[in-house]
Queue: 3 jobs
Job 1
Amino acid sequence: MPKLMKRADIPAFLTAISAGNPDPKTELHYKTPFQLLVAVVLSAQTTDVAVNKVTPGLFAVAPDAAAMARLGEAGIGPLIKTIGLWRAKAKNVAALSQLLLERHGAEVPGEREALEALPGVGRKTANVVLNEIFGLSTMAVDTHIFRLGNRTGLAPGTTPRAVENQLLKRVPQEMLKPAHLWLILHGRYICKARSPECWRCPGAAWCMFKDKTPVPSGKKPVRR
């Protein structure tokens, strides 16, 4: 495990990887809080790209909780069957839509406990919704953030919750909300799982990963 990144270096590291993106947005496509909630539930163990291919058709038929509940599991399934775990996700989306109608007037609640009580909604999904829709400084630790937290020394931990707790303690409060997406996007496009592109990482100077990948032949390193 890499050494712990110096707390004093964290703002510089995050500023570097933000790449001039002070107000990042999720790459999931949505128009309403309900649609984001559904999209995040669908994104479990599936790429955002795959989810964005099925949600236009799904939301055209069922744009809100009432329509989704009417569509039901049997109607949702065929519209999302190209993504992983589609049967379980169809069941959860139908059930959570019904509960939104029964408990929350068809609106997405802004409280963690209420969100996590919905089928298919765990802590990570709740954190995404609370961050993206309600503007809270939450940290949804997905595979990218878990990897970066450990690889860079920013927030090492053996579980997603441990990494989340470290990030909440170590990232400056004013940077917490955007840092969630800065880290996801950085992990998705630069600090990749199998072959991190350290040679073009603007935050490499502060990263504690010792086995940084060299500059490939014909490529130019990022100037820092």
Note: The chain has a mean pLDDT of 94.
Job 2
Amino acid sequence: MSTIPVEQPTSAPPVEAMPSRGFWVEAWQRFRRRKLGMTALIFVVLLGMVALFAPAIAGTKPIVTRYKGRLYFPAMAYYNRRWENAIFRTEDKFRGRYPKNLKENDPESWAIWPLVYQDPDRRIYEDDWPGVIPPNPTGHNGKPYLYYLWLKGWDALFDTNRVQEEFSEEYLAGPPPFNLFGTTDRGVDVFAQMVHGAQTAMLVGFVSMGIAATIGISMGAAAGYFGGAIDIVLSRLIEVVMCIPSLVLILALLAIVERPSIWHIMAVLGVTGWTGIARLTRGEFLKLKQMEYVAAAKALGAGHGRLMFRHILRNALAPILVPIAFGIASAILTESALSFLGFGDPTAPSWGDLLSKGRDAIREMWWLILFPGMAIFLTVLAYNLIGEGLQEATDPRLRQAGH
């Protein structure tokens, strides 16, 4: 009797567990599916790049120049006026007019210039760059070059001679092709002010909300974690600050300062804009401190600081980012309103200041309203869309529903 061999069952290969995705990875993937939010994020990133590289985009100071055998970076003065080299400011007294003075004082000098030779603080004169850059028009004559292209057709963009002749004939002392967005009544280029005004807008938004987030998260975390008398005192403080109108408080504080700068405005906006973040942080801490992982961390001997900022805050940060994004938009809008009312920093280019200059001549100088108004609207809208996208991407109810 023959035996039939029986195949021994082979063990199935072990199934490798797929690594679980983190919360922030899933939130980013959900955020990416929202087209409006991603479009707004791309817009803000591009605006940030414009603000960061503003001196290389529009300016009259060289990005880098070799002068009398040494390399200098005069464009750094657009970030801080004190960073302009003393040899140009006090010794050789360039007075901001580099092309002519560089060649006269050092014929072997060379320079790399910004993309657009226009200054956000002053007008371009005939002797700035003789034979190369014409002077900026003043009064109501500084119409945008883009407006001319819209009237004459975009093919005129490639015919510089015809542009200069026909544009000057149509508007008499109209702007040359170098004023993309036109000029103010004093002849200052609007495009340069818009580019450098992006620095002010982004700086105000991030610095003021950085201050507000630091105060709000600290106050809310202490109130929610410790509870008791600390919670009562801090909650009453939050309510008192909320009862004070922010704009009135800002105007009152700025009236005390003799020469308000953009840093004073950022500090005031930060000190008055933390209450919403504090209340939300307090609520999250009250909820999360009852979780099991917090009790386990306590049992392992974690201190209060480690519990608050290492364990609880990391899990409470997602909903806190939403009011921060909305707060950046509110800070930019508030700074523009203050500049429009004349309470801003007169030395810092601002979109609100351009709106204020076009208020008295809105019919004759409509470009002073159109371009800064669009910039403020699009920037505030972008931050609001980012905040809305963050709110939807970090909502646990949408996560459970599989959206």
Note: The chain has three domains: 61-113, 131-188, 190-401.
Job 3
Amino acid sequence: MPIIAESTYRPDWLYRRSHPSTILPTLLRPAARLPLVRERLEIPDGDFIDLDCLRNGSDRAVILCHGLEGNARRKYMLGMAQAFFRRGWDVVGYNYRGCSGEINRLPRGYHSGATEDLQVVMEQVGASSWKDLVLIGFSMGGNLILKYLGEDPENVLPNIRAAVTFSVPADLGNSCGELIRPKNWVYHQRFLRLLRKKIELKAHRHPDMIDITRLKRVRTLIDFDDLYTAPMHGFVDADDYYRSCSCRQFMTRIRVPALLVSAKNDPFLGPSCYPFAEARDSQWLHLETPDHGGHVGFHASGREYWSECRAVEFISAILPAASK
């Protein structure tokens, strides 16, 4: 039932095409200046996770999850953090393992389905102590959140009131197939460059556990996942990783109000990333597919981007005091 037939997103003409709406917000938007406090979590397996937090002493909090090779200080993360912080919320910006500017200790890193790390973050940050908790994710972070909500719904924290996700690669294999297409060469090469650098740093720290010579065989993101992501995290190969971690298969079990916004012109998403059937049959999953927006774009000319206003609007409908 909750398919939102007509989105309110109406961008200026410059932001109506796929690539400008994806790239220009990253290039042109000023970074919000926020009093972020870095908090390091020492986690049970001997590794660490860094959080960038804003504390209002509130009984409400939002946890933000970034995209592939992003971090909690990307402009889209800061914009969302600012939107909620100025409304009185506490904000936790979750940097995945190795994404905070310092390589993590263990050979393993992060991946699109690492909900066990999200669970550890929520436990150690005391998430159960907030009266109301909301999860917001972008791209890979959206996949992570929706997988968490659906894979074991009986054990989802009871104070999680809602989730909002943007530009979600709900079918990871389908999304990777899009990313390696020639039209996405710039994005694809950037991801490969960042991921190769991370493997080089890890191999320097763990020379007996990471075979850096395999990098010579990496030509695509799928190659990287096949040779590194999958074996480092217990999957047979890239296909096994994509099948196991794609959030689409878990959506029918979600029991928390969740909004998924993915633009129809998102260059990273193929047809299988738009879960119309699941939303149509769910009372919890709301799917909104504006014509424009690109990938984690959704530019607006005011103080807040449309994505930030939309997140506040959705959560305010569930928690009436959320927008104050």
Note: Residues 3-171+247-318 form a domain with the Rossmann fold fold (CATH 3.40.50.1820).
